[in-house]
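As the work plan foresaw, the team has encoded backbone shapes as discrete tokens. One protein thus recorded appears below exactly as we store it.

:::
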Amino acid sequence: MLEKSKWYVLLTKPRHEKKVAARLESMGIEVYCPLRKEVRQWSDRKKKVEVPLLPSMVLVKLTENERHLVFDVPGVVRYMFWLGEPAVVREKEIEGLQKSLKSGFKVLDVKELSVGDTIEIDGLGSLKKEKGKVKYISGNQCWVVLESLGYVVKMNI
């Protein structure tokens, strides 16, 4: 019987996500490393850079028998585990993440944000109108915990 591929969460060394993803792709492994654009300020200039949405994480699609192949790549630390089993991400969640990165997130019906508020977020692809709790606010950015998905989303407000 043919074994089915699953999306696994691979932990990397800090700031190695893009390098690890490129090396795994060159090995023929299906990889998803979601990136977002961010403006970074240096003392002499501003620059748009792509930063990983999931710090120190890369998603790989492999069969159970292929899981060992990733350890040939420098920068790979280990797989993430959940309840003693390798963490598996559903295809629906990957598609939702891809769609949300293309369309962006929208906060629905919020006049003024403060830490602890529960807000409704649209733009999560097939996972429409998720509720989240505001964890932290800094300037024009806020971090929202989407407990049902197990994500923390950083958003511009």
In short: Residues 132 and 150 are 10 Å apart (CA to CA). Residues 6-89 form a domain with the Alpha-Beta Plaits fold (CATH 3.30.70.940). The mean pLDDT is 83.
